[in-house]
């Protein structure tokens, strides 16, 4: 009798001591529906939602500070690389956080699993009816008439008050992806026949033909990029591939035969896949974006081992479309590639601020392992990634607004000027980092009242740098032609970084890692070609004008290899 009473008392005490999950508070909400979407009927109650929950990390601000320390020349910690264990000590959630969230889910009959290296992301699947109750939400079908696609989202959701401070966000809820698929930030234009080109790889004089047909030899002449082969096998450059964009080896061979005949015709790229990714080699499967990225890394970063990472459609991160998956994939490596270039993204206002911050923090973790992360800035000028639809304010792009990656804008012509499509501006989510404050303040002072009220003057400013982005020659399906977009610029600048890393590693020094503190330093910015003409129109304006110093069209400028080599101490 006493035993039964004791067990009952213990049970009552346990229940009384557990947190209450009944009191709810709104975690995220949005007041508007993104442009192009129309709110439809309530989502069917039996539809299954695959949700991802982001746990609060222990000390992500500490990891951000550490990344700045190890990336800033002159700092006592400059050049260091954090171990997986050190990264996890900052980025993993506290045990209490994990325990409380798991208790909440279990109390609702929900089974979950961890999907990130540091344990800060978990996933679970529940029907709409349960999600509406669990999150005090109203999941609704939103239609996109232009494409005929439908998405199930809610404009607000809540979590238990006792979990506030333990959960960053649940996704997909209030964020909307691009209905055209994961957006190609720099969608190349229709192929056109190439103009006559110069084959002189030795002269630093830039051939006149480079005004209408940009090739690797043009870039070597324009930026002083060496044609000599890299020597360090440990130096790796990775190219990310999404939305069934496949890189074709035969097209690469043909490209090299035309534009880099000094490289061995057997030169190839490596392949890694995740999320059921693949890379079929039939000519019809050759992707313009993937071929561009591979041809201008293999063809410019001479001799650097290049890996194409093909992300399939079996996403573990849900509607993040593999963006988190590829970072977790690289974080799981003991030695991830020293450079990652990506030509995909979207407008910042399509995703929640919490989600933007969470993805940005994923780049922090990879940067802590000395990987330089570069993204194309976008092709809509001040109107976003690729669109011209904007109302009162300019549209910044994501992830270019993240302070812990390097955004690459576009230029055109031998006497370089800003490409009119080069996206640039100021984030509405991320504050301006200290490493760029002086450069941005100088620009805003010179800008005066132009575009006043159309952008966030205190936001993280982008792009950081730029490179050629128009009339770029590639081979697709056996055909040669020209493309344009900042997706040309990102692999070009990434190749320059990889060649610098090759020299650094050969000298027994660490790779550059997170680039921005170096780029914005006096020695770094002086090693770039300042672009002072052109602008990036959009939203019924001329956009931002390029000016001396940093500007939100071409950033700090384009690379000068010999000066950069000196700037990194070689």
Automatic annotation (TrEMBL):
<keyword id="KW-0479">Metal-binding</keyword>
<keyword id="KW-0865">Zymogen</keyword>
<feature type="binding site">
    <location>
        <position position="551"/>
    </location>
    <ligand>
        <name>Ca(2+)</name>
    </ligand>
</feature>
<dbReference type="GO" id="GO:0006508">
    <property type="term" value="P:proteolysis"/>
</dbReference>
<feature type="active site" description="Charge relay system">
    <location>
        <position position="293"/>
    </location>
</feature>
<comment type="function">
    <text>Secreted tripeptidyl-peptidase which degrades proteins at acidic pHs and is involved in virulence.</text>
</comment>
<dbReference type="GO" id="GO:0008240">
    <property type="term" value="F:tripeptidyl-peptidase activity"/>
</dbReference>
<dbReference type="InterPro" id="IPR050819">
    <property type="entry name" value="Tripeptidyl-peptidase_I"/>
</dbReference>
<dbReference type="GO" id="GO:0004252">
    <property type="term" value="F:serine-type endopeptidase activity"/>
</dbReference>
<feature type="active site" description="Charge relay system">
    <location>
        <position position="487"/>
    </location>
</feature>
<keyword id="KW-0964">Secreted</keyword>
<keyword id="KW-0843">Virulence</keyword>
<keyword id="KW-0720">Serine protease</keyword>
<dbReference type="Pfam" id="PF00082">
    <property type="entry name" value="Peptidase_S8"/>
</dbReference>
<dbReference type="GO" id="GO:0005576">
    <property type="term" value="C:extracellular region"/>
</dbReference>
<dbReference type="Pfam" id="PF09286">
    <property type="entry name" value="Pro-kuma_activ"/>
</dbReference>
<keyword id="KW-0732">Signal</keyword>
<feature type="binding site">
    <location>
        <position position="530"/>
    </location>
    <ligand>
        <name>Ca(2+)</name>
    </ligand>
</feature>
<dbReference type="InterPro" id="IPR036852">
    <property type="entry name" value="Peptidase_S8/S53_dom_sf"/>
</dbReference>
<keyword id="KW-0645">Protease</keyword>
<feature type="active site" description="Charge relay system">
    <location>
        <position position="289"/>
    </location>
</feature>
<dbReference type="GO" id="GO:0046872">
    <property type="term" value="F:metal ion binding"/>
</dbReference>
<dbReference type="InterPro" id="IPR015366">
    <property type="entry name" value="S53_propep"/>
</dbReference>
<protein>
    <recommendedName>
        <fullName>tripeptidyl-peptidase II</fullName>
        <ecNumber>3.4.14.10</ecNumber>
    </recommendedName>
</protein>
<feature type="binding site">
    <location>
        <position position="549"/>
    </location>
    <ligand>
        <name>Ca(2+)</name>
    </ligand>
</feature>
<feature type="signal peptide">
    <location>
        <begin position="1"/>
        <end position="17"/>
    </location>
</feature>
<feature type="domain" description="Peptidase S53">
    <location>
        <begin position="213"/>
        <end position="570"/>
    </location>
</feature>
<dbReference type="InterPro" id="IPR030400">
    <property type="entry name" value="Sedolisin_dom"/>
</dbReference>
<dbReference type="InterPro" id="IPR000209">
    <property type="entry name" value="Peptidase_S8/S53_dom"/>
</dbReference>
<keyword id="KW-0325">Glycoprotein</keyword>
<feature type="binding site">
    <location>
        <position position="531"/>
    </location>
    <ligand>
        <name>Ca(2+)</name>
    </ligand>
</feature>
<keyword id="KW-0378">Hydrolase</keyword>
<keyword id="KW-0106">Calcium</keyword>
């Amino acid at each position: 009798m006493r035993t039964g009473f004791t067990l009952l008392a213990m049970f009552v005490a346990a229940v009384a001591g557990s947190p209450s999950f009944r009191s709810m508070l709104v975690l995220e909400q949005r007041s508007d529906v993104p442009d192009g979407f129309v709110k439809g009927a309530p989502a069917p109650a039996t539809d299954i939602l695959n949700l991802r929950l982001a746990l609060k990390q222990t000390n992500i601000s500490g990891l951000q500070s550490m990344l700045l320390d190890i990336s800033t020349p002159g700092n006592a910690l400059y050049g260091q690389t954090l171990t997986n264990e050190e990264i996890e000590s900052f980025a993993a959630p506290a045990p209490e956080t994990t325990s409380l969230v798991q208790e909440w889910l279990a109390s609702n009959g929900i089974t979950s699993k961890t999907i990130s290296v540091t344990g800060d992301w978990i996933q679970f699947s529940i029907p709409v009816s349960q999600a509406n109750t669990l999150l005090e939400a109203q999941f609704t079908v939103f239609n996109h008439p232009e494409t005929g696609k439908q998405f199930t989202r809610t404009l607000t959701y809540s979590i238990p008050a006792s979990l506030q401070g333990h959960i960053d966000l649940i996704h997909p809820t209030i964020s909307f992806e691009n209905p055209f698929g994961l957006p190609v930030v720099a969608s190349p234009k229709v192929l056109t026949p190439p103009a006559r080109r110069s084959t002189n790889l030795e002269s630093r004089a830039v051939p006149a033909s480079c005004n209408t047909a940009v090739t690797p030899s043009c870039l070597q002449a324009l930026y002083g990029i060496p044609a000599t082969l890299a020597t360090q096998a440990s130096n790796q450059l990775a190219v990310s591939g999404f939305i069934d964009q496949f890189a074709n080896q035969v097209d690469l061979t043909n490209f090299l035969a035309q534009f880099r005949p000094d490289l061995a015709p057997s030169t190839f790229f490596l392949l890694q896949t995740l999320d059921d990714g693949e890379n079929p080699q039939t000519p019809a499967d050759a992707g313009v974006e993937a071929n561009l990225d591979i041809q201008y890394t293999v063809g410019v970063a001479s001799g650097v081992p290049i890996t194409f990472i093909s992300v399939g459609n079996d996403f573990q991160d849900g509607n993040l479309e593999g963006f988190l998956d590829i970072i977790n994939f690289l974080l799981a490596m003991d030695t991830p590639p020293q450079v990652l270039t990506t030509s995909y993204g979207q407008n910042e206002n399509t995703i929640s601020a919490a989600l933007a911050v969470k993805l940005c923090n994923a780049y922090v973790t990879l940067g802590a392992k000395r990987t330089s992360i570069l993204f194309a800035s976008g092709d809509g000028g001040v109107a976003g990634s690729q669109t011209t639809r904007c109302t009162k304010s300019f549209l910044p792009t994501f992830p270019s607004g993240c302070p812990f990656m390097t955004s690459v804008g576009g230029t055109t012509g031998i006497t370089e000027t800003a490409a009119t499509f080069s996206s640039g501006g100021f984030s509405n989510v991320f504050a301006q980092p200290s490493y760029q404050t002086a450069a941005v303040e100088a620009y805003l002072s010179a800008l005066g009242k132009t575009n006043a009220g159309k952008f966030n003057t205190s936001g993280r400013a982008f792009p950081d740098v730029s490179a050629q982005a128009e009339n770029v020659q590639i081979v697709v399906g056996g055909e040669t032609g020209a493309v344009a977009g900042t997706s040309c610029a990102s692999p070009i600048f990434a190749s320059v970084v990889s060649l610098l890393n090759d020299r650094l590693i050969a000298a027994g020094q660490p790779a550059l890692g997170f680039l921005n503190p170096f780029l914005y330093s006096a020695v770094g910015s002086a090693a770039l070609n300042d672009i002072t003409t052109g602008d990036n129109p959009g939203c019924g304006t001329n956009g931002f004008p390029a000016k001396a110093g940093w500007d939100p069209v071409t950033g700090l400028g384009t690379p000068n290899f010999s000066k950069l080599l000196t700037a990194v101490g070689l």
